[in-house]
Amino acid sequence: MSSSQHHIIKESSDSLVQLLTQQLKEAGYKRVHIIVNAPKPDAIEGKLPAVCLYLYQVSLDDEGLDGHILREVVEIQQPDGSVKEFFRRPPMWIRLDYLVSTWAQNPEDEQLLLGLAIKAVIEHPFLEREKLKGDSFDPEFYLPLALMTRLDEGTLSRFWGSLNQPCRPAIQIYTSVPIASERLEEFKRVYEPVVKYKDLSKGGEAEDFPSRIPPDREPPPAATRPSGFAKTTIPKNTG
What we know:
Layout: H1 8-26, E1 33-35, H2 41-44, E2 50-60, E3 72-77, E4 83-88, E5 92-103, H3 107-123, E6 126-127, E7 143-144, E8 146-147, H4 153-162, E9 170-179, E10 185-186, E11 194-197, E12 207-210, E13 231-234
Parallel strand pairs: 1-2, 3-13
Antiparallel strand pairs: 2-5, 3-4, 4-10, 5-9, 6-7, 8-9, 11-12
Helix pairs in contact: 1-3
């Protein structure tokens, strides 16, 4: 398992920066700065024109949580080709909310940049793995992107007021990413129950007799299986 999986929040932001940079270049904007800090004057000064991608909120994603899954089964391939199974807490899905604002010498250019940012999200409802930066994403993972409805005027006023800025147009986009635990609990499955008996008349030792349960009817693990579980396979090169 990769020890860099906790980089996923930062690498999600890096992937969005890459998307916006590509979208701007395709539209002919080659000198637009992408800023990931809060849209304060000192962060924007000397960097016009600019698009500010500000991660303003991190929270649990209720839609990505499954209260019935208490732990999942993880299969990890060993160097000798065998597979070991482990229990692990299921990944915690985290929602990332971004505020995107644009900055230029005049309002017209700011509106053009904002339109391009909206276009980038509309044309990319999700980013495939090859378009994501970093090693924290699974090979088959894709990053979903969506626009949010507008914030109410009171919230916007307080936000810009806290930055000593007048209210200005901005869009909100969000995505959701999983953060997985690296703590694994190894277990072994019981494939064939064993019955022991001792022939008292002969005074012999206890002998093992297999049950008559068909081998294709696999019993549950020796440990108590939770009410819900998921299954994940981790290749040996990440084990």
